[in-house]
TrEMBL record:
Cellular component terms (Gene Ontology): cytosol; mitochondrion
PROSITE patterns xref list: AA_TRANSFER_CLASS_3
Protein name as catalogued: 4-aminobutyrate aminotransferase
One example of a Gene Ontology biological process annotation: gamma-aminobutyric acid catabolic process
């Protein structure tokens, strides 16, 4: 019996769309009411999560969609997963929700075993974790850790703060408030907070009207596809971008303390970084004394066929910090060097220090992924799905430009000739029963759950072929 059948014996066998437009009338009515107390303008439809099951999301009009977007890549095991419901009903969860502890000051007896479950799923080379509340928060916390580490190396780890540092920091002045930078990449998305906003460079709407740090953006490689036919050109592109990174680090007006990169830029258009590029960044950051941060918020927890996408690159030595959220239903960063633990308490600290309820769910997700061999399944299904997409590309080459994600699980994307055609395709797919997301200006991105199987892929390909033929 397949994993999806074990979890969801009553999962729908096909999507059903009963309305002629999406959102349908009940969704429209519900969103209008919601809009009076909440900004509902970005909503696609009003969801009914009580009726959603497995790989199918149901809306307020009773439409059921095969979901290949999964809450912007955030649902690992499907809707109403029985094992996660079991974890949600546990005594540990009740304590975490009802008596939510301020973990820094009053950690619970449950915390160590909860964290050990998470650390069993940590990226290779990482054995410590610090918890946060969201992907953006995870990245902001990682920047704090990087800055403290960088300054501690300059000052001497065990040295006390000087009187000048203690007084100047209260005026937001140097040396207590040093001028340091984080290098990121054009088209990157790392969050919508202040420091994370400064390293985000995908769409203006994410960061308009709030102040930004003067931090550099390097160029992310833009490859030609298929990869096997363009090795020389893509290696030259890697080298071009690496030179830009090195030149920026060496010439920027303030010291670059850290570099952050997504192994696949997701919001920015599903741009993939090669093993060569990711390893070369490790060599470069090690040589120049820059903290290397991998942002696995969207790529992590199995979607690429590895627990963590950067593990495909086998980066040596391991990167310094790995941030996570989304499919893990929790957030934070992994690390291994004890020098990233601040030299004094209360420096990396807030009331909650994360969310133990979400950590419990993360541990349960990790356990299910491992016990059900969902990484192997994701790789197998991804290969099956990619082959089906290649066949469609042969028939409609203009509608499947730069098809990418081969051998990267179900983390697959392609481009349409124009943004209008991409948007029309996504709209048509919904009417044909598939909830699919886009990214950047031209791209369609697939982000199904880890319980997505060949039978789901067949349903999607049928809907996709129909939608493409209608464009």
């Amino acid at each position: 019996m397949s994993v999806a059948s074990q979890y969801y014996p009553n999962e729908p066998t096909v999507p059903v769309v009963q309305t002629s437009a999406i959102p349908g009338p009940e969704s429209v009515k519900g969103l209008e009411a919601l809009g009076k107390v909440f900004d509902a303008r970005p909503a696609y439809f009003l969801a009914d999560y009580e009726k959603s099951l497995g790989n199918y999301i149901v809306d307020a009009d009773g439409n059921s969609y095969l979901d290949l977007y999964a809450q912007i890549a955030s649902i690992a095991l499907g809707y109403n997963n029985p094992k996660l419901i079991e974890a949600a009903k546990s005594p540990e969860m009740i304590r975490a929700l009802v008596d939510r502890p301020a973990l820094g000051n009053f950690p619970s007896r449950d915390l160590e075993p909860i964290l050990k479950k998470i650390l069993k799923f940590a990226p290779k080379g990482q054995d410590k974790v610090w918890s946060g509340l969201s992907g953006a928060d995870a990245n902001e916390l990682a920047f704090k850790a990087a800055f403290m580490y960088y300054r501690s190396k300059e000052r001497g780890y065990h040295k006390e703060f000087s009187t000048e540092e203690n007084t100047s920091v209260m005026r937001n002045a140097e040396p207590g408030s040093p001028h340091l930078a984080v290098l990121s990449f054009k088209k990157a998305f790392h969050g919508r907070l202040f420091a994370s906003g400064s390293v985000t460079c995908s769409k203006p709407i994410h960061k308009l009207d709030f102040p930004a740090f003067e931090w550099p953006h390097a160029e992310y490689p833009h490859y030609q596809y298929p990869l096997a036919e363009n090795e020389a050109a893509n290696r030259a592109e890697d080298d071009r971008c690496l030179k830009i990174v090195e030149d920026l680090i060496k010439s920027w007006s303030i010291p670059v303390a850290a570099l952050i990169i997504e192994p696949i830029q997701s919001e920015g258009g599903d741009n993939h970084a090669s093993k060569y590029f990711l390893q070369a960044l490790r060599d470069l950051t090690s040589k120049l004394g820059v903290v290397y941060i991998i942002d696995e918020v969207q790529t992590g927890v199995g979607a690429t066929g590895k627990a963590w996408c950067h593990e495909w690159a086998d980066i040596q030595p391991p990167v310094d910090l790995v941030t996570f959220s989304k499919k893990f239903q929790s957030a934070g960063y992994f690390f291994h060097d004890t020098l990233f633990v601040p030299n004094k308490p209360y420096r990396q600290f807030n009331t909650w220090c994360g969310e133990p309820a979400r950590m419990i769910i993360a541990g349960a997700i990790a356990q299910e992924v491992q016990e059900k061999n969902l990484l192997e399944q994701c790789s197998r299904v991804g290969d099956y799905l990619f082959a089906k997409l290649e066949a469609l590309r042969s028939k409609y080459p203009q509608k499947f430009q730069r098809l990418r994600g081969q051998s990267r699980g179900t983390f697959i994307a392609w481009d349409l000739p124009t943004g209008a055609e991409r948007d029309a395709l996504l709209k048509s797919l919904k009417l044909n029963g598939c909830n699919v997301g886009g990214c950047a200006e031209l791209s369609v991105r697939l982000r199904p759950t880890l319980t997505f199987e060949e039978k789901h892929a067949d349903i999607f390909i049928e809907a996709l072929a129909k939608s493409v033929s209608e464009l």
